[in-house]
Structures are given as structure tokens and as C-alpha cells.
Automatic annotation (TrEMBL):
<keyword id="KW-0963">Cytoplasm</keyword>
<dbReference type="InterPro" id="IPR017900">
    <property type="entry name" value="4Fe4S_Fe_S_CS"/>
</dbReference>
<keyword id="KW-0479">Metal-binding</keyword>
<feature type="binding site">
    <location>
        <position position="60"/>
    </location>
    <ligand>
        <name>cob(II)alamin</name>
    </ligand>
</feature>
<keyword id="KW-0411">Iron-sulfur</keyword>
<feature type="binding site">
    <location>
        <position position="238"/>
    </location>
    <ligand>
        <name>[4Fe-4S] cluster 2</name>
    </ligand>
</feature>
<feature type="binding site">
    <location>
        <position position="211"/>
    </location>
    <ligand>
        <name>[4Fe-4S] cluster 2</name>
    </ligand>
</feature>
<keyword id="KW-0004">4Fe-4S</keyword>
<feature type="binding site">
    <location>
        <position position="213"/>
    </location>
    <ligand>
        <name>cob(II)alamin</name>
    </ligand>
</feature>
<feature type="binding site">
    <location>
        <position position="191"/>
    </location>
    <ligand>
        <name>[4Fe-4S] cluster 1</name>
    </ligand>
</feature>
<comment type="similarity">
    <text>Belongs to the QueG family.</text>
</comment>
<keyword id="KW-0819">tRNA processing</keyword>
<dbReference type="Pfam" id="PF08331">
    <property type="entry name" value="QueG_DUF1730"/>
</dbReference>
<dbReference type="InterPro" id="IPR004453">
    <property type="entry name" value="QueG"/>
</dbReference>
<feature type="domain" description="4Fe-4S ferredoxin-type">
    <location>
        <begin position="173"/>
        <end position="205"/>
    </location>
</feature>
<dbReference type="InterPro" id="IPR013542">
    <property type="entry name" value="QueG_DUF1730"/>
</dbReference>
<comment type="function">
    <text>Catalyzes the conversion of epoxyqueuosine (oQ) to queuosine (Q), which is a hypermodified base found in the wobble positions of tRNA(Asp), tRNA(Asn), tRNA(His) and tRNA(Tyr).</text>
</comment>
């Protein structure tokens, strides 16, 4: 076994020990196939008011422009599928937002993994990314064999579906690289048929400006009135395309205590949400990704669903 293989094996073994679902490695370089797709998506205005998507176009497509001397992209998946879900008579929250904000949880694990490499391998430098920088997470995860990008544009794996976070370490060390897997969506159109706002305009293309997650999290203005009655009671995010995907039959509960919800969250009813105070919001969503929309944003979403 040569050094590249040996190091790759070592890194994957430590990633597993840290609780990651899986780890794949690909060679850092220009994402040739993604470039025209991203350009078309932006030109078609499918990013809506997410103007930040227009920034750093070159860096999005080439990590060597983002991290000096980078040689490898290590992609990691972390499961967030909960063992229990919300009360059925409730406004809905995307499952990824039940517990502590994943940015904190994953960043800590990535730092530990980088320190491990420095201790075990030597002079390794790099940066950790958790969807807060111009990195095409799903493209890199697919390139490194962790799954394929489904018709709903989420990463999918045959073993565990799609309820996981994707993160990366981009480092200056050459490693043994993995190869992509094949697409297993077949003729299935469950996600396209089920999308409440018809945001999946064609297989593998999502119009972000029509997505419920965009309306409830990203959009700072009022939600367009033409989507009244089409939001399927989602007040933060949306899981419909994942919930209906046949591959998610294989989802297993996570074992990360930090992703467990505040005890009150699962039992809250529509009435509880309609009457939520800022104090309850701060208590239930302490260190949560829901803080991104703020109390006022969540109230706006609930009022839109209620009226």
C-alpha cells in the first residue's frame, strides 16, 4: 500500500470514529461539468434574491482558487435523520433544523479531523467548509463516490437516502481518489410530482426562487401571494422531496445528541406556534439554525400559513 492509499485509509477511519456517515476523496480541480449548469441556473434567475450565489463564480468551480496549494477535496456526510418527528397537527420544520445548528457541530468535527491529520501525517494544511462558502458541496460529494445527485438535486445514496449534511476539508495533500457512483433514480418522478410549488422544473433542476425553503428562510421580503395555500404547512424549510423519495426508506436515526430537539418542539401544535413568544422562540431554538430566520421571520411564515 503506497502512502496515498495509506493516508486515505487513515483519514476515512478517523472520520468514521468522529461519527461521520461516510467519507470520500477527490482530486481538487476545475468542475468542468458543473460550470455550464451553474451559469445557466444563474442566468435563468433560479437563485431569486440569493445574490450571493452570483459571487465567486470561479472559486465555486475550482477549489484551487479558494485554498492555496490544494490537492484534495475530502467530502464527509453526517446523518441528521431524527428518531421522532413533530406532532402531526403542527406547522412543519425541516428535520435538519431540529437540534443544534449543524455549522457548529460539523465545524468542530472537521477541526478534529484536520488536527488528527497533522498529528499522524505531518505538515498538512487546509480549510474546513460547511455550506457557508462558495463550494459546490453536492458536486464534490458525488465526484468522490458518496452518492449521486437525484432529480430533486439532493445527494442520494442507496444505503441511507439523503437526510445528511455535506461538508468538506480542502487540503494540500495528495491522496488516493475515489470514483463516482451511478445514478439510481431511474424513471421515478416522486419528488417532481410531490413538490407543492412545482419548484423542480425538470429532472435535476430546481428553481430555487419557487422552493418553500427559499421562501421560509432566504427571502427577506414578503412571500408572494400566489403561493398561498401551496406551502403544505412548512414554516421553516421543506422536506417534501426527500420524504417521498423511495431511497429514504433506508434512513436510520442519527446518534448525535446535539441534533436532538428541544423537548417542547415535537409536541407543539399549530395553536402553540401561532401564539409563540420571543422568549419561547429563544428557548426552543437556542443555538439552532432556525435563528437564521429570526423570530420575526418565523412569525411572518406562520401568519402566511394561517391566513
Amino acid at each position: 500500500m503506497d502512502k496515498k492509499q495509506q493516508y486515505a485509509k487513515l483519514i476515512k477511519s478517523e472520520a468514521k470514529r468522529l461519527g461521520f456517515l461516510s467519507c470520500g476523496i477527490s482530486k481538487a480541480g476545475f468542475l468542468e461539468e458543473e460550470a455550464p449548469r451553474l451559469e445557466k441556473w444563474l442566468n435563468d434567475n433560479m437563485h431569486g434574491d440569493m445574490r450571493y450565489m452570483e459571487n465567486h463564480f470561479d472559486k465555486r468551480l475550482d477549489p484551487t482558487k479558494l485554498v492555496d496549494e490544494s490537492k484534495s477535496v475530502i467530502s464527509l456526510l453526517l446523518n441528521y435523520y431524527p428518531s421522532e418527528t413533530q406532532n402531526s397537527e403542527s406547522y412543519k420544520l425541516s428535520k435538519y433544523a431540529y437540534g443544534t445548528d449543524y455549522h457548529f457541530v460539523i465545524k468542530d468535527k472537521l477541526k478534529l479531523l484536520l488536527h488528527f491529520m497533522q498529528d499522524e501525517i505531518g505538515d498538512v494544511h487546509g480549510r474546513a467548509f460547511v455550506d457557508s462558502a462558495p463550494v459546490l458541496d453536492k458536486a464534490w460529494a458525488a465526484k468522490s463516490g458518496l452518492g449521486w445527485i437525484g432529480k430533486h438535486s439532493n445527494l442520494l445514496t442507496q444505503q441511507v437516502g439523503s437526510f445528511y449534511f455535506i461538508a468538506e476539508l480542502i487540503i494540500d495533500l495528495e491522496l488516493e481518489y475515489d470514483t463516482p457512483v451511478t445514478d439510481h433514480c431511474g424513471t421515478c418522478t416522486a419528488c417532481i410530482d410531490a413538490c407543492p410549488t412545482e419548484a423542480i422544473t425538470e429532472p435535476y433542476v430546481v428553481d430555487g426562487s419557487k422552493c418553500i425553503s427559499y421562501f421560509t428562510i432566504e427571502l427577506k421580503e414578503n412571500i408572494p401571494t400566489e403561493f398561498k395555500g401551496k406551502m403544505d404547512d412548512w414554516m421553516f424549510g421543506c422536506d417534501v422531496c426527500q420524504d417521498v423519495c423511495p431511497w429514504n426508506r433506508f434512513s436510520k436515526s442519527h446518534n448525535e445528541p446535539l441534533f436532538n430537539p428541544h423537548p417542547e418542539l415535537l409536541s407543539m401544535t399549530k395553536k402553540d406556534w401561532e401564539e409563540i413568544t420571543e422568549e419561547t422562540f429563544q428557548k426552543v431554538f437556542k443555538n439552532s439554525a432556525v435563528k437564521r430566520t429570526k423570530f420575526s421571520g418565523l412569525k411572518r411564515n406562520i401568519i402566511f400559513l394561517k391566513d
